[in-house]
Amino acid sequence: MKRHSLFFCFLVLVLLNACGVKSQYEKEALQKIETLEGLMKEARSRSLDVTREETTLWFANEFLKFANWDETNKDATAKLFGYERYYAQNKDSLAEVLPDFERTKVIQILEKSIDDLNQELSGEIKRRPVSKVDWHNTKAGDNMFVSNGKPSFPYDYFSKTVGQPLTNEAVYNDHLGAIYHGGENLYPVDHDRAINSFLLKEDGTFDEELMKELTGIPDTNIGFLIYWSMGIPEWVEAKEPEIRKGRSLFTGFDIDNPTARDLWGKIIRHTGELTKGKKVTELGYIFANEPHWYSEKDHWTFNYKEMNGISSYTLNKFRSWLKDKYNGNIKSLNSNWDTKFKSFDSVEIEIPIDKALTGKPIWYDWNRYNMHRSTEWFKFMQDELHAVNPEADTHIKLFPRTFYEDSRSHGIDFEALTELTTMIGHDAKALGSPSIRSHINSDWNKQYAYKWDGMAILHDFLESVGPDKINVNSESHFLSSGMWRDLEARTSYVRNVYWLATLMGMDANMGWFWARDPDGSPEDRLEGELNFFDPGLGGAYAGSNNMQPHIANEVTQVMYDLNSFSEEIIALRKQPRPLRFFYSETSAINTPDYMTQTGKLYKALFFEGLPLGFVTKNIIEKQDNGIWNTVVVYKTKYVTDAEFSSLQSYLDNGGSVIIDSPESLSMNEYGKKRSKKLTESNGKLIFLNDADISEIKKTALAQVAKQMPDVIIESDNGKDFKTVISRVVKQVDGSYLVNLLNLGHDTAKIKLLLKSGVPLTIKNLMTSNPVDVEFNLASEEVLLLEVK
């Protein structure tokens, strides 16, 4: 449904409500609940699995209860709509129609569940029984979580119903997920289960009352803990006046400050000892929430006090870093920066830095150092934790935009941080509808049903850096975010995006967010006057899954299916990535549109039927070069000598490299012309002359033709661009697993063939039904097939 017609539909519902239809909706829903319960009784008598129906029933009953609360508390609901500026103007009418909206969606999920179970009872379909996550005994294994001897994909909601006991089964269950965690601290003085700086008192002792929020977590369910760095105690600020200078949005202090390090070192060691071996750490310790230190002028983070300057500690450490970088030669620095500093001790820099300096040596040096210092901070945190808890798994909730957007003034080196921690961590996002913010470009909607590319390119990069690491999305914004939300969001979108993310590497996810208490009221933080430092939270409730029974139910349904076919999903995503993009942090720093250009080539190759990957200097040096076939160098003008040498080494060892133009690799990090050229050596070197994307694509695919799957998938969506993702893997018995996802608006015509020309038989593994070799794949449809 188009957003511009949604409000009209709401007005119609208002009129229906005025005519007394509301009681009819509830009556109809209750009748369908009774029907479904009768079918479930019959199914159980025939030993058929009804786990999926149990979840639909649970959400149906919960949301009927929620609808009644919303009916009785329209003023409170209108107020919550009003905190989101997209809904604010219509908050009263939205609050008026919400209860019936929720009831109609309850009817819809019940109708689908009744239809599915009727089909199974009649023998029209045969579903694989659900393999549940074992919330008590799931373990972090090699590159995956393991539950009852099978790969497992735990799921839950991040920042869930703060104020509710972790043992409350109305909140922690199979339907909503049951991952225990140290929650996010979103009140100025709230310390709910987060490990934060207020745990340590001025006298050096720990606040045992606050510590109970951590030590009191029952040792029954798996979970994670988060180091929450927003605040800093007043006694620390009084002791160290510079403590907040150079702070960031979610790190409320200077990470270079010795006092801050002493404080956090003590907290990390103490809490690491207290929680060692606890189940609540099975999904790791999260070192930070969306860390970034944007340090360029006119960035949106400046208004949130991020990097409004730097401390003397940061400046002095920068001077030391420069001294080492320039081998103590101040003349070399002055020549590079066009300055006249007498010594490294006298070097000065203006922060935030002017974006007009992009590509200049001073720009490179600062941004490279900003990454160095943040990596060093997280290494400090991990070293402190591992000193007392050496087996502790760690990750960082990396902010995806800091990778796939162009700016590199944020101080986050994704490769270094992914190498550092024992798990991959992030909070990857997608947009299911055009953005609700007018300044956000929604051009993606012209070609695709949802915005998938940021999540995808992030996963392919992180999985390339850490191929043997568990991948945890600790705040998945697939359902809503500050950029988008849609009350009429599609269940097909939910299924597609969760499936795609899991296929690309996501091992566990905690969605944003569950904020209903069991009685239907919003959780404690969303009551009263909302005045959060983070303006996003106040408006997050409106239009979220907390008002969408169809969306909340579908999240669990798709996770049930993913867990039931977990071995197949792992097999599909274990495939090699024969085609790699060369990623250079040097070019990313120095080039204003490096990631924009990289993203264009990435999208052009994404739908060609094979997993994509990245290489860097470190990946070439540290990983087996034989697991990929070809490296593409694209729009990569600036590389260090070490990066250049790594590519030459790859060629020396027999690799294949495609270079898009003579400009790529032509400069060092300071814009100085490189005299050396790559030589073919023992490999294959293909020089193109300012090639466009279509030529690069054609050349690259020719290089990996032998690595393409045995099953040929032809797709036709009537457009001049592709929208169907396909993955194929050969199984031990000679059959093939084929996974298809349509990301387009239009139905695609699909035809499957074998390279050998041998006739095929195809089975839909989700229904056990036969499939023709030619069929239609609907928009956002997901199919998992067995091909023989």
TrEMBL record:
An example Gene Ontology biological process: carbohydrate metabolic process
Keyword line: Hydrolase, Signal
Segment forming the signal sequence: 1-23
Keyword Protein biosynthesis attached: no
GO terms of molecular function: beta-galactosidase activity
Alphabetized SUPFAM superfamilies for the sequence: (Trans)glycosidases
Record-linked PANTHER family: BETA-GALACTOSIDASE GANA (PTHR36447:SF1)
Protein name, as recorded: Beta-galactosidase
Lineage per the UniProt record: Bacteria, Pseudomonadati, Bacteroidota, Flavobacteriia, Flavobacteriales
